[in-house]
Specification:
With about 300 residues, the chain is an alpha/beta fold. The protein contains 11 helices and 7 strands. The protein is globular. The N terminus is likely disordered. Pfam families: Methyltransf_25. This is Methyltransferase domain-containing protein.
């Protein structure tokens, strides 16, 4: 999850699972307008990091407008999905019945349906997002291929079997063991779980990520152990930390450009953006220092 223009600090208390699920859903409902402002317009809106091939340089605030930076961010966010498709052999594994778990505003769901002909169930625990995703899918002519399901990821209805589940920077919100146990019931034998996520490499990195996004970063080993207990095997692991570092530079640049160019911002808006700026910079520093890593994992149900 990568909405870096959002000030609202997620609650710090440790909650029981039912309360926590509702709270996270409300957290994302409340920031929809900010997501659209930074990553829109639709119909394909992504809020995750972008992928930057080594030859590409991020835009800077002093030489680009907020709109130009936003377009570049969107382009590279879709680039991340194209890279994921290559890593996961989407033409083979993500062209059937797919669960997009933690679908956000549906950008990934639409991508898998549009590019690979997938029949996608877009899973969200933010009720207000469901009609937005449905509307975007219809706008793309994919109303029959993309349908939304409002539920807790750990309580997916056993209505499959599905061929694959995808989680793009959303699995950090799930109870891993329960999630994999549930997926083992809804995927067919040989089905795949494809995860793109920010993984922990040292405690300070976890603090930076968790405090801003109200999530629980974990190690790749944590994922592998939870998956193995549910009957999955980790079969692919690809690191893309260096190729995603420029996202934080462009996200920082967008925030600076808005602060410099938009005289209509209220005092509250400016404060929000300045706090966002500090969060961007801290996350970029953790990326560079190796405190967090961005990886693509694929698990197969045995």
């Amino acid at each position: 999850m990568s909405d870096l223009d959002e000030l609202s600090s997620p609650p710090q208390a440790v909650l029981d699972p039912p309360d926590e699920v509702g709270l996270v859903g409300q957290y994302y409902d409340d920031k929809t307008a900010r997501l659209v402002r930074k990553y829109g317009p639709g119909p394909k809106i992504h809020y995750h990091v972008g992928y930057y091939p080594s030859a590409e340089r991020p835009l800077r605030a002093h030489d680009a407008t907020p709109d130009a930076i936003r377009r570049s961010i969107r382009c590279h966010q879709e680039g991340l999905l194209r890279y994921a498709a290559e890593v996961w052999d989407a033409g083979h594994r993500l062209s059937g019945k797919v669960l997009d778990v933690g679908c956000g505003l549906g950008g990934g769901s639409i991508f898998w349906a549009q590019e690979y002909g997938a029949d996608v169930t877009a899973v969200t625990n933010a009720p207000e997002h469901a009609p937005i995703v449905d509307g975007f899918a219809r706008e793309c002519g994919l109303g029959r291929q993309v349908r939304t399901l409002v539920c807790d990821a750990m309580q997916l209805p056993v209505s499959g079997p599905y061929d694959a589940a995808v989680a793009i920077e959303s699995s950090g919100y799930f109870h891993r063991a329960r999630w994999f146990e549930r997926l083992a019931r809804v995927l067919r034998p040989g089905g795949n779980v494809c995860v793109e996520e920010v993984f922990l490499t040292r405690p300070h990195g976890a603090d930076v990520w968790a405090e801003y996004f109200y999530t629980r970063p974990a190690t790749v080993l944590d994922y592998a152990q939870a998956a193995r207990s549910a009957g999955f095997e980790l079969v692919d692991e690809v690191d893309a930390t260096s190729e995603t570092l420029p996202f934080w530079e462009e996200s920082t640049a967008w925030t600076k450009a808005v602060l410099d160019s938009d005289s209509s911002l209220s005092a509250v808006d400016r404060r929000q953006l300045r706090i966002s700026l500090m969060a961007n910079q801290a996350l970029g520093a953790e990326w560079r220092a190796g405190g967090l890593r961005l990886g693509f994992l694929r698990f197969e149900l045995r």
